[in-house]
Amino acid sequence: MSEGWPRDPAEVADAEEEEAVAGEAPASVPDEEDEEVSMLRTADEVEVEQHAYGELDVPDDVNVIEGHPDGARRGVAIVASRYNGEITNRLLDAALRELDASGVRREAVTVMPVPGAFELPLAAMALAKTRRYACVVALGCVVRGETPHFDFIASEAASGLQLAALETGVPVAFGVLTVDVVEQAEARYSKGAEAVRTGLEMADAFAQLRASAGR
Fold first, then answer.
1. CA of 127: how far to CAs of 83, 90, 121, 146, 170, in Å?
2. Is residue 69 assigned to a domain?
3. The domain spanning residue 199 has which CATH number?
4. φ/ψ of residue 113, rounded to 5
């Protein structure tokens, strides 16, 4: 007989309880798809919180140059990617409706289609260099795939459009969606209108700056 027998009844009860707990079925592991959806939902919620608009509390005793999305007497160029055209068409529609609402005449709007997001910066640079437009609005959509292609295209599009603005001094608004799946783009079609407002606001601010510098 093993050492320690007969055992204390309390010890026997504790041992049986531990064995019962150890034999319980493990907690269910969440399905990978459910976990991915949850992560995407969380990321979307964080994005909404981080990109909330706000007002700056600027003291009254300083000079302020603040643009407004006023399109009167302004020419606007839109460069739009044909790739992922179903999405880009919705962005373009939102942009054109916002231009109408902002007072930009249709004859003052120029649209230049390009093959894909990678070509957006070159076209934006060319349009800005003509000095015919108060701002350039870039529209496109890059969807993450199974290769690093997404990272290269999205990064080059963003940096290239910024370079076009910096080198020409003409505001270039970023209306390019970068999403993990196509479904995420459906909630972001208003990005086209947002890009128009950004471009017009910056154009107005620059016009005010030039006017104040000439006085």
1. 20, 22, 10, 33, 9
2. no
3. 3.40.50.960
4. -75, 145
CB 176 within 8 A of CB 123: no
Among residues 149, 159, 166, 209, the one annotated as catalytic is 149
SS3 labels along 120-168: HHHHHHHHHHCCCCCEEEEEEEEECCCCCHHHHHHHHHHHHHHHHHHHH
CA-to-CA dists, residue 181 to 5, 92, 178, angstroms: 65, 20, 9
Residues spanned by the domain of 201: 76-214
68 carries an active-site annotation: no
pTM passes above 0.90? no
In this predicted model, what pLDDT tens digit does every residue of 161-209 receive, in sequence order? 999 999 999 999 999 999 998 889 888 999 999 999 999 999 999 999 9
Side-chain half-sphere exposure of 214, counting CA atoms within 13 A: 6
Q: What is the DSSP letter of 108?
A: G
**pLDDT per position as a tens digit, 13-43:** 555 555 554 555 444 555 555 555 454 444 4
Helix (H, G, I), strand (E, B) or coil at 45: helix
